[in-house]
Structures are given as C-alpha cells and as structure tokens.
C-alpha cells in the first residue's frame, strides 16, 4: 500500500507495517530518550573507570607511552632477550620487545611471550601483588589484553621458572613483570598473524587467487593455515618478523661475508660496477631501458665487461657484490628481474682451472662456513621448510664433469626420458635436476661442476678450448663451466677471450656486429692495451641461499623480490 501524506512510513523498519504520524513521533522521542540514557551510562562508566584508574595503586606502572624517560627504576638494566643468562637471575631488567601472545591464568595472573631478534623469545609472568612493587589485578588484565605484535617495554625481575618453558628459546628464565608500557600498539586485527607468517608458503604465483586469504589457503600439518607469497608481501612487516625469514636474511648476510673474506684473504680487491649503462652491451634483448636526459640508458644485466675492464686496468684480481637486472618475463621459482650478483675476475697464470679452483674454493668455504656458523639459523629454516643437509664432497674429491660426461651420465643413469640427450645442446632445467639426483647417488655430493660447455651454449666472450676438442656434430667446446647445487645452477664462469682479433671473430660468429654500441668500446679496450689472460664467474646470491636451504623459491631468499608482475613493496 502506498503511504498517504498523513501516514508517512518513515519510521517503519524493513518488513514492518508503516506507523502513524503520532506513532512515529512517539518512537522518535523514545529513541532520543534511549540515546540520552546510553550517553549518560557511558559518561558514568568513564567516570567510574577514571575513578578506578585513579585509585589503582599500580596506575603509573602500565599504560600507553611514547616516551619512557624516567619510567623505569634507575637500577634496572636494559637488556636484549638474546643477552639474558643465569647471571641476570634476581636482577631487575628492562626489555623492549614485541608481545607475541598472552594468556590469562586467573584474575590475578597472566602470561605473555616476548620476542625480539629473530626467534629469541622469553616468557613473562604478571602476578597481582599488594607488596611493592605493586601489581594490581587491573594491570594484569590490561597487560594480557595488549594486541599481539605491539612493541612494548617491560621492567621485570629475572627468575628461574619452576620448569623450563618449552615454548620459548630462553627456556631457563622468565621475566616477572612489574612495569609494562605499550610504546607502539599493533591493531586488534593483523593482516597476517605470526602463526600464519611462520607457515611454509605454498603458492608463489604473482596472480591473486580468487580466494587468496589465510582462511582459504591450504592447511598445513598444523592447524594454522598457510598464506600465499602475495599475502606475505602485502604484509611485509609480518613477513619479515617471522623467525624463518629472519634466519634466511641472516644466512644471506653470512654468504656475502664468507664470499668477501675468502677472496680478500687471496688478494682480491672489491670494486663497484655501474648499474646504469649506455648500451645493451651483452647483445641480449633482456635489458631494461629507461629515459636518460633525452637519451636512453639501460640497467646492467651483469658486471661482466666492467670486471674485465678492471683486469685490463691492472687490478689483477677483483670481485663485486652488485645488483643485476634481467628484463626476462620468466615467472619461475628460479628467476627474478633483479638479483644480487657475487662476481669475481682474475688473471690466469697457466690454466683456466686456476679460476675454476678459486670459485670452487669460494663456494665450498661459503657452504662449510654456513654449516659451521649458522647451525641455529639453518635449523630454524628447516623447522618450516624441511630439507636434507647439503651433501658436500670430501676435500680433494670434488666432482668435475665435462659437459659430455654429464650428458653421458644422464643418458645412461638418468630417467628414460633423457636417454637421447645430445652433447652439443644445452641442458634443460629438468635435465639439470635429474643429473643432480644421479650425481648425488653416484658421488654422494650435492655440489659439482660441469665444465667444457659447447660454444653454442655460451656467450661470445667464452674462450674456446685450444685443444680443438669437439662434441656432437663437431661443435667446439669452451673453457667455461657452471656450478650446481641440488641439480640447480648457481654459478656461470670460465676463461674469457683476451685477444681482440679472436674476440671480434667470435662476436661476428654469434651474429653480433662488432661495431654495435657497447661492443665496440668493449673490443677497443683490448686493442688499447695488452690484457692478460683472465677468467671469472658470476654467482647468484639469491640462488645460493635458496638452494643451499632447499627453499621452494628464490623469491624467499631475496630481501624484496622483483618479478615481472611485482615491484611492490
Ligand atoms: P638461467 O639460465 O638459470 O636463467 P643464466 O644462465 O642466465 O641463468 P647467468 O647469466 O650465467 O645465468 O648468471 C649467473 C648466475 O646468476 C646464475 O648462475 C644464477 O645463479 C644467477 N641468475 C641468473 N639469472 C637469474 C635470475 N633471473 N634470477 C636470479 N638469479 C639469477
């Protein structure tokens, strides 16, 4: 029925019959009265709360604070959770950390878990007490209702728990909290909880799945759901806070440190190759272009030419740790559009095997160093991403196969589908992985070298083997090699051509004009001076970390993975 002007339906709730004008007025008055009543009740509650807080003898010992100046006892010692040991028992300390979770035991007692520095966590106990320092029930309630991942500061007495706290890394101590301030609160609802952030990522696609949220994601062994890489990256702070990511990031730092220290001890000198370059120098199409003062510039696809300029410039042995950019639309767990290259280049005295031996030494020192010095971090990663330890060769028993030997091994001992692989064609990724399995079974190592690649599989600057050796249908082999771990490439290297005429001939043979931009300047350098024989290699830092830990994707090893579809955060 249509309402008449005298019978407005304005006050009718959906599904209810319209009310009369008089009825509407009455309802309006009633609503007003109720709103006033609610307002009054809220004011009274606030007053009551103020009175209670005012009356709370512990009121200065807890609350939100931006500034903790004079908040803590002068004799309380500021410590990090990782520093706490038995020498602190009985002492008063101040700990700044994230509140990981909390639990109410009773109105008088609660527990919190504090975390900092990766996976260093400790249990905190808050117990109501009338004796100084007073802890009120209200304080217990307030502390146990702080939102997880808030940054807090507590003053506490360090005590030994009745039993070791199994859930915490610092299991033999606990903090009896007497003061607690929230310095930076987290929201009540986190975009991704620590529980979810600590589950293995199962989906690395850059495309948003129709139901891409933690609830819809596949359940893992525990009851906590796993999230996709997209969700992790959209919650970058929580992604990074997860102990597994902290451990990966720490291992990454160690890889760089071992790389640098091994080389510095052998008279290698560091230099910085440019990222901005004036030509797509290596001739490939996989280069990013950008506007440069009305001209075009490119992002470096590798420091190759610059390492060689250093050798030409008399630096003898050089290395660099630098970003490398690849404009490849490769959406695989092995590829990123930006990664970190660990590169070296050195003069050769007698044979290119000097380079191979140096690179083998670098990688073995990195892997052995990690196994010795990062056992805890490795264990943290393994607790999320299960893996077998990387099998390394006994000293003196390093495995070096020629490309032809590797293909023969694959044909004879690999899966049937690879029974016809050729000696003059580059290996596919499945072939490389299958070979990794064969080598592991046969030689008991996950780390090996494949040397003497056919020239068809190498760039123009690769030096061809002087012996004239060929594979397949007469394809010449090069003094160039790749290194593998767990069947995946982590390094490419070899001897470079240092004779300008030979270089020019190889450039032409690859269908590139020696006069093209970047190439011309490169070849000219070899004409300007006499450049000693030299060689080197490029290691992908992200891949070394990822495959050492047997992670499901190289994206997990990068600080901020860049892919064809993702530039944020
Ligand atoms: P691939 O064939 O796997 O794409 P590549 O032969 O192009 O690699 P090189 O140009 O020889 O690799 O680079 C040297 C090293 O850099 C590689 O052994 C690898 O560890 C790393 N690397 C190369 N491309 C990428 C990439 N897109 N993302 C991450 N690391 C990479």
From TrEMBL:
Annotated Aminoacyl-transfer RNA synthetases class-II family profile domain residues: 251-569
BP terms from Gene Ontology: aspartyl-tRNA aminoacylation
Region (Disordered) residue spans: 1-35, 50-74
SUPFAM superfamilies listed in its UniProt record: Class II aaRS and biotin synthetases, Nucleic acid-binding proteins
Record Pfam families: tRNA-synt_2
CDD domains registered for this protein in UniProt: AspRS_cyto_N
Keyword Kinase listed: no
GO molecular function, one term: RNA binding
EC number: 6.1.1.12
UniProt keyword terms in alphabetical order: Aminoacyl-tRNA synthetase, ATP-binding, Cytoplasm, Ligase, Nucleotide-binding, Protein biosynthesis
Basic and acidic residues bias: start-end ranges: 25-35, 56-68
Enzyme class: ligase
GO cellular component, one term: cytosol
Subcellular location(s) of the protein: Cytoplasm
Bias (Low complexity) ranges: 1-18
InterPro entries recorded: Aa-tRNA-synt_II, aa-tRNA-synth_II, aa-tRNA-synth_II/BPL/LPL, Asp-tRNA_synthase_2, Asp/Asn-tRNA-synth_IIb, NA-bd_OB-fold
Catalytic activity: tRNA(Asp) + L-aspartate + ATP = L-aspartyl-tRNA(Asp) + AMP + diphosphate
Recorded family membership: Belongs to the class-II aminoacyl-tRNA synthetase family. Type 2 subfamily.
Protein name listed in UniProt: Probable aspartate--tRNA ligase, cytoplasmic
Species per Swiss-Prot/TrEMBL record: Stachybotrys elegans
């Amino acid at each position: 029925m249509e309402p008449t002007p005298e019978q407005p339906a304005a006050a009718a709730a959906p599904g209810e019959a319209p009310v009369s004008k008089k009825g509407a007025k009455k309802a309006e008055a009633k609503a007003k009265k109720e709103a006033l009543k609610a307002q009054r009740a809220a004011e009274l509650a606030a007053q009551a709360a103020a009175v209670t807080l005012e009356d709370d003898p512990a009121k200065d010992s807890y609350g939100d604070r931006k500034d903790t100046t004079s908040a803590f006892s002068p004799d309380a010692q500021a410590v990090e959770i990782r520093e706490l040991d038995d020498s602190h028992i009985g002492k008063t300390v101040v700990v700044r950390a994230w509140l990981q979770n909390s639990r109410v035991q009773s109105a008088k007692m609660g527990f919190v878990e504090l975390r900092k520095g990766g996976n260093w966590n400790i249990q905190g106990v808050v117990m109501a007490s009338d004796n100084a320092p007073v802890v009120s029930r209200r304080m217990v309630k307030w502390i146990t209702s702080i939102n997880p991942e808030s940054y807090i500061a507590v003053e506490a007495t360090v005590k030994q728990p009745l039993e070791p706290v199994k859930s915490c890394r610092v299991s033999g101590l606990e903090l009896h909290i007497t003061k607690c301030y929230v310095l930076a609160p987290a929201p009540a609802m986190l975009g991704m909880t620590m529980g979810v952030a600590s589950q293995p990522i199962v989906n690395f696609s850059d495309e948003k799945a129709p139901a891409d949220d933690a609830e819809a994601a596949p359940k893992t062994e525990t009851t906590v759901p796993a999230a996709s890489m997209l969700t992790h990256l959209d919650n970058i702070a929580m992604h990074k806070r997860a102990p597994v990511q902290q451990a990966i990031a720490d291992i990454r730092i160690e890889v760089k440190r071992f790389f640098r220290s091994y080389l510095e001890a052998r008279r290698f000198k560091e230099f910085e190759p440019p990222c901005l370059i004036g030509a797509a120098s290596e001739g490939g199409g996989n280069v990013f272009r950008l506007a440069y003062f009305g001209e075009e510039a490119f992002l470096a696809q590798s420091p190759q030419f610059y390492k060689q300029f250093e050798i030409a410039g008399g630096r003898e042995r050089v290395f660099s740790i630098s970003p490398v950019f690849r404009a490849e639309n490769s959406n695989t767990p092995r590829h990123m559009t930006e990664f970190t290259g660990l590169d070296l280049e050195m003069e050769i005295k007698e044979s290119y095997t000097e380079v191979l031996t140096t690179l083998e030494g670098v990688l073995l020192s990195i892997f052995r160093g990690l196994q010795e010095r990062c056992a805890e971090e490795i264990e943290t990663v393994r607790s999320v991403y299960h893996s077998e330890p990387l099998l390394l060769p006994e000293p003196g028993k390093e495995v070096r196969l020629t490309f032809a030997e590797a293909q023969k091994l694959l044909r004879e001992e690999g899966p049937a589908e690879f029974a016809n692989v050729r000696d003059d064609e580059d290996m596919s990724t499945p072939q490389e992985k299958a070979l990794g399995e064969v080598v592991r079974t046969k030689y008991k190592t996950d780390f090996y070298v494949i040397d003497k690649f056919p020239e068809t599989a190498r760039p123009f600057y690769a030096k061809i083997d002087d012996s004239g050796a060929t594979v397949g249908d007469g394809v010449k082999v090069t003094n160039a090699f790749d290194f593998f771990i767990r069947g995946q490439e982590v390094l490419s290297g070899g001897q470079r051509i240092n004779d300008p005429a030979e270089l020019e001939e190889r450039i032409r043979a690859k269908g590139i004009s020696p006069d093209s931009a970047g190439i011309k300047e490169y070849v000219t350098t070899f004409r300007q001076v006499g450049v000693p024989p030299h060689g080197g290699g490029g290691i992908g830092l992200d891949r070394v970390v990822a495959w050492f830990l047997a992670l499901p994707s190289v994206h997990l090893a990068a600080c901020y993975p860049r892919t064809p579809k993702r530039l944020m955060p």
